[in-house]
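Progress note, project year one: complex with iron/sulfur cluster.
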Amino acid sequence: MSNPIIKCTVDQCTHYMPGDQCMAAKVSVYNEEERGQSKGAEDTQCKSFHQRKTVGDMLGALHNVNIGGTVSAPFLDGKQITPVVECFVNNCTHWQEGNACNAGNIHVAGPNAGKTQDTDCETFRNS
Ligand code: SF4
Ligand code: SF4
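Model obtained:
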C-alpha cells in the first residue's frame, strides 16, 4: 500500500479534521457496488466514511484513528496526516498492483454526505 496525501472536504465524516485532512489510519476506496467498475469519479467511494452524528460517534470511530508517530490530532501544528490508502478501483490510471494508489495526492469529496456512496475520489482517472 502507498500513501498519497489526502485532501478531504467531507466534513460530515467522523474522520474529518479542519484543514481538509483525514485522521483515519487507513482509507479504503472502492467502486460503488451496483456499477462494478467506475467510469467517473462519481462512481467511486470512500468506504472509510462514517457519518458524524453525535459526540459518541467520534468515540465509535476511534478504532481507525491515526495515532501513530508524531501526530496527535488536537495538536497538529500544521503537520500533515497521511492515512494509508488502499484502493480497489483497478481501472484508475493511478491504481497499482496490491491495491495501491500511486498518485501523489488524492482529493476526496462529498458535499453533505450521509453514506459512503455520497463520497468520491475526485482524483480518479479512467484508464
Ligand atoms: S470521507 Fe474518507 S477520506 Fe474523508 S475524512 Fe472520511 S475517511 Fe477520511
Ligand atoms: S486516484 Fe485512483 S487509484 Fe488513487 S485512490 Fe483514487 S481511484 Fe484509487
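Residues 69-75 have pLDDT under 50 and may be disordered.
Residues 5-121 form one domain.
No further modelling is planned for this target in the current period.
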